[in-house]
Design a protein that fits this description.
The chain has a domain of about 110 residues. It is about 60% helix and about 5% strand. It contains seven helices and two strands; from the N terminus they run H-H-H-H-E-E-H-H-H. Strands 1-2 form a two-stranded antiparallel sheet. Strand 1 and strand 2 form a beta hairpin. The longest helix is centred in the middle third of the chain and has 27 residues.
């Protein structure tokens, strides 16, 4: 059972006025309850500030299984055609690393790789996010997608560029578009 489910286990027990532990039969009901609470909280709080990124990722995957159309609408509305919100969305699917070397702990995002990108595409239709970044005129940098660092901090610009490259590669792979018709990243530098 996930951390998020465990955290809300006690709330569920109180709401149902029961001492019974939550079983798998109740998991779907709990997931739906968490999604509804998240949606209510989103009415007064920024979508990306309600829960830590890893818990938002988990919630989005449950939401997709329950109502993918509603999920897509909510995510697109939360992004609101803003580049900074697209970056926040990408960060949801990017591991958070905390380094304890040096004088103080340092937390950063690192390791947005093909696996994380694939998870993102399985949960939401990301075409809208790519279009927002593309229209923004982001300065393009080329990255070796097979060698993305998983212990070094990635900047917002690096995350955006890696995401865009994965998207463009996916279009090229999925639709058999010749590589020449995929935007040339180096010519935009």
């Amino acid at each position: 059972m996930s951390t998020l489910l465990l955290q809300f286990q006690f709330m569920y027990k109180i709401e149902k006025n029961s001492e019974e532990l939550i079983g798998q039969a109740n998991e779907a009901e709990i997931k739906l309850m968490l999604i509804n609470r998240f949606k209510r909280e989103h009415e007064s709080t920024d979508f990306f500030d309600i829960l830590p990124d890893s818990e938002i990722w988990r919630l989005l995957s449950w939401w997709r299984d329950i109502d993918s159309v509603d999920l897509q609408t909510i995510v697109e509305n939360a992004v609101a055609n803003k580049v900074e919100n697209v970056i926040k969305l990408i960060k949801v699917f990017t591991p958070t690393i905390t380094s304890f070397g040096g004088t103080a702990p340092r937390t950063f995002k690192s390791g947005f790789d093909a696996k994380n990108y694939a998870s993102m595409t399985e949960i939401i239709d990301i075409g809208f996010a790519y279009e927002i970044l593309k229209a923004s005129g982001y300065i393009r940098e080329k990255y070796d997608l097979s060698a993305i660092p998983n212990r070094d901090a990635l900047t917002d610009t690096q995350l955006a560029n890696i995401f865009m490259q994965f998207f463009e590669k996916g279009i090229s792979d999925r639709d058999s578009i010749p590589a020449a018709s995929v935007p040339d990243i180096e010519s935009n530098s």
